[in-house]
Design goal:
The complex is a heterodimer of chains A (81) and B (129). Chain A has 81 residues and is α+β, with helices and mostly antiparallel strands. Chain A has a domain at 11-63. Helix content of chain A is 20%, strand content 22%. Chain A has 1 helix and 3 strands. Chain A has one helix at residues 45-60; strands at residues 11-14, 18-25, 30-35. Chain A has a 3-stranded antiparallel beta sheet with strand order 1-2-3, with no helix packed on it. In chain A, a hairpin with a 3-residue loop joins β1 and β2 (18-25). The mean pLDDT of chain A is 92. Chain B has one domain: BH3618-like. Chain B contains no helices and 10 strands. Chain B has strands at residues 2-5, 9-12, 18-21, 33-37, 45-49, 56-61, 76-82, 91-101, 106-109, 121-122. In chain B, β5 (45-49) and β6 form a beta hairpin. Classes of the chains: A alpha+beta (81), B mainly beta (129). At the A-B interface, α1 of A face β6, β7, β8 and β10 of B.
């Protein structure tokens, strides 16, 4: 891991088209601004990791038998208007 | 071309059946080509990697769950299903859908920003129908 020390309002540039700026500092929070091209996907780390884990589990469980589900009722999302 | 699948045994398929994920699927970026398999009487689709047929994503058409789900032009939204021997534990990932255009045979996976879509959504209602 590359470790850099930055001050408020200072930036990091990655690959000449991604800029990360330190916008604010408080006791245990850091506010970061990111400027990147549309095709660069940005996710919160914990959400990304959770999705990957869920997908790996989905693959692991993909051979579970599913014969019993045909009679069950799908849990629909009801839109509140 | 032939492929050994987990649910349908050995299958023969043509070039025109291949669904291409140009950017792959999250965590499996190196796998670009899949077959979307389904038997008529089943609820689930089986998105099966051609290069690694043991990589299978069970999918469900999200329109069966949410009629107002985020659309992509000419594509259908599918949720990755986590199966379980106990159907009440079967969940669908509504946060990271897979969109498939069956005409152009292109697929893409997206992570949605909307808070309201959970990663583990219970697929079946508790009460028997």
């Amino acid at each position: 891991m590359l470790i850099l020390t930055r001050r408020l309002d200072e930036e990091i540039v990655i690959d000449s088209n991604v800029r990360i700026k330190i916008l604010g500092l408080s006791e245990n929070q850091l506010k970061i601004g990111i400027v990147a091209p549309q095709n660069v996907k940005i996710y919160r780390g914990e959400l990304f990791d959770k999705i990957i884990k869920e997908m790996e589990e989905a693959i692991k469980k993909s051979s579970e038998p599913v014969e019993s589900v045909s009679k069950l009722k799908v849990n629909k999302i009801k839109t509140i208007k | 071309m032939k492929i050994q699948t987990s649910h349908f045994g050995e299958l023969e398929y043509g070039e025109d059946r291949i669904i291409r994920f140009a950017k792959g699927i999250l965590g499996f970026e190196e796998l670009k080509e899949y077959l979307l398999l389904k038997s008529d009487d089943e609820l689930f689709y089986w998105l099966t990697s051609i290069d690694k047929p043991d990589i299978v994503f069970p999918l469900i058409a999200i329109r069966l769950i949410d009629s107002e789900y985020i659309e992509k032009p000419d594509s259908e939204a599918f949720g990755i299903v986590k199966l379980d021997p106990d159907p009440s534990n079967i969940t669908v990932n509504l946060k990271a859908p897979v969109y498939i255009n069956q005409e152009s045979k292109e697929g893409v996976q997206t992570i949605l920003d909307e808070e309201k879509y959970p990663i583990s959504y219970n697929l079946f209602t508790k009460e028997a129908d």
